[in-house]
Amino acid sequence: MEAKSSNKHDKYERLVAVAKTLPPIRTAVAHPCDESSLGGAAEAAKMGMIVPTLVGPAQRIKDVAKQKGIDISGFSLIDAPHSHAAAEKAVELVRIGQADALMKGSLHTDELMGPVVPSAAGMRTSRRISHVFVMDVPSYPRMLLITDAAINIAPGLEDKADIVRNAIDLAHVLGIDQPKVAILSAVETVTARMPSTLDAAALCKMADSGQITGGLLDGPLAFDNAISAEAAETKKIVSPVAGQADILLVPDLEAGNMLAKQLSYLSGAEGAGIVLGARVPIVLTSRADSVRTRLASTAVMALVAHARRAGTFPGR
Q1: In 3D, which of 275, 223, 270 has the Cα closest to residue 249?
Q2: Which of 10, 19, 150, 297 could serve as 302's disulfide partner, Cβ 3.0–4.6 Å?
Q3: Other CB atoms closer than 10 Å to residue 1's CB: what's the count?
Q4: Angle between helix 157-173 and helix 291-310 axes, rounded to 10 deg
Q5: pLDDT at position 309 over 90
């Protein structure tokens, strides 16, 4: 197992350092009407990761910038009367080739995703759209990807297969060549009384037959066995994934959301959020996110956007 670093969040710092060496990504920022979202976009632009186009009520954005001392003088600004209109316009910028990524401002996730999801919008790919938290957990020696905690409420087996594929592709972009995927449940045995264990068994079989590639899958695994080699050894679990998971596939959105927030508030972790499976990467941030987390989310987005541009990111 890798040695723990003395720097609390060095995993994020490495991501940002890599993203800063790449050309900036044209990014449509939907409704950045508060200090955190507008300031985060401005800071990412200052660091050379994005070229933002701000989409929303123009006067309101200018007022926030003036009140909070945020310099937006070099940014394009497209007026949209409210959050729904801002989301629609931001998606349109992608559709017509004027933006290569989307970034959530001060609007609800469903408002931003509303114009993305319909097939007629031209934003879909062959993959299910899903969300990944890239967690920097100080007590864990590697980045930990949790999926899906924001988009798919109660995914079925085929949905979970795409959710896993999206996460594996992201792990590759982040430099994890053979990510270890733990398919979480409350127990380690397959039982018909717990559907998540049946899905875990089926997903592992899909990996065995080549329907899911690029990673090592095992499950069902309880959370402790997925991230603790000691817990796995105590329960006599022999697995190439147990105790060293890179990706945690959760049973449903509620479990993923609670897990990510528990790690954040009880373990000092931070979670960079990104949506995959659309034509472009989408940054999802929360009003509670720190500047470091916002920059990490942008860095992940930039790495994915460059991989897509190079043709090395699947799920197109």
Answers
A1: 223
A2: 19
A3: 9
A4: 90
A5: no
Residue 218 CA neighbour count, 13 Å, CB half: 22
Structure confidence at residue 148 (pLDDT):
96
Q: Which domain holds residue 179?
A: 126-277
pLDDT attached to residue 287:
73
Long-range CB pairs of 259-263 (<8 Å, 24+ gap) are: 259/146, 259/149, 259/223, 260/133, 260/135, 260/146, 260/149, 263/135, 263/137, 263/144
For the chain, percent of residues with pLDDT exceeding 90: 84
Q: For 6-159, where are the E strands, in sequence order?
A: 25-30, 50-56, 76-79, 101-104, 130-136, 144-147
- The answer, yes or no, to whether residue 211 has pLDDT greater than 80, is yes
What is the reported pLDDT for 315?
Answer: 55
Residue 170 lies in a domain: yes
Is 93 within a domain? no
In a domain, 289, yes or no: no
Structure tokens at 158: 């085929």
Q: Closest Cα partner for 103 from 37, 161, 168, 148?
A: 37
pLDDT band at 3 (very low <50, low <70, confident <90, very high): very low
- Tokens 């991230």 belong to residue: 227
Amino acid at 47: M
For residue 240, give both structure tokens: 């190439």
Q: Is residue 149 part of a domain?
A: yes
pLDDT computed for residue 4 by the predictor: 42
Q: Specify the number of domains making up the chain.
A: 1
What CATH number does the domain containing 171 carry?
3.40.718.10
Average of pLDDT values for 12-16? Answer: 90
